[in-house]
């Protein structure tokens, strides 16, 4: 049996009903859509949403240090320097460094095989600066990035860019956001907020990385003199 995911009109109606309201006018639709977009922006500030991880590559240009990520990039998670193709392909780690570490680099225009990257999360986009500056045209930067969650600019359709496991959280969050804007249902705001936080914890727990991690103790021996 297929997973049944409510459409946006159904989710909007559900949210209004949970808030003790009815969606009757075109403005109700507009305010619900605006709340949906704000809600998905909030999720981007709550941590790593696994369904928004994308991979990609950038062909590096000789003597060019700075590169611009796709416009919907929130952050860069991992970067590797790729050389060769097929069975000769080799990926080596590129260490992410802070702005202070990069600023203290005395010779920023050194040419060579890039080993470090500074990620600038600017207001209008995400930019990468490599060090050393690529000295060849045969390098490719492979990356994993966290992209933004697509919202709804107009009209109605599916549940935007949200997987089924997050739909209950979406409905609870919309109800909470809508109730905050309606003084006549102020008494429902706190209970709706508690339900929203509960649903988010459930969804975020299901969205966690299941890969195993092994911790090896490090013993330090001191030989006194």
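^ Assign residues to that structure.
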């Amino acid at each position: 049996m297929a997973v049944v995911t409510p459409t946006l009109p159904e989710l909007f109606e559900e949210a209004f009903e949970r808030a003790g309201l009815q969606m009757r006018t075109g403005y109700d639709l507009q305010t619900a859509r605006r709340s949906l977009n704000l809600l998905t922006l909030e999720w981007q500030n709550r941590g790593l949403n696994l369904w928004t991880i994308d991979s990609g590559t950038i062909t590096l240009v000789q003597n060019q240090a700075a590169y611009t990520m796709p416009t919907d990039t929130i952050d860069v998670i991992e970067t590797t320097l790729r050389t060769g193709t097929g069975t000769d392909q080799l990926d080596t780690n590129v260490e992410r460094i802070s702005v202070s570490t990069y600023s203290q680099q005395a010779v920023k225009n050194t040419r060579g095989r890039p080993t470090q990257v500074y990620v600038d999360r600017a207001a209008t986009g995400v930019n990468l600066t490599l060090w050393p500056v690529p000295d060849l045209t045969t390098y490719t930067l492979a990356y994993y990035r966290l992209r933004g969650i697509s919202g709804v600019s107009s009209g109605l359709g599916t549940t935007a860019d949200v997987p089924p496991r997050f739909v209950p959280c979406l409905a609870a969050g919309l109800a909470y956001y809508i109730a905050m804007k309606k003084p006549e249902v102020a008494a429902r705001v706190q209970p709706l907020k508690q339900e929203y936080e509960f649903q988010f914890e459930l969804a975020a727990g299901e969205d966690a990385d299941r890969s195993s991690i092994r911790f090896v103790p490090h013993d330090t021996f001191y030989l006194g003199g």
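The chain has five helices and ten strands.
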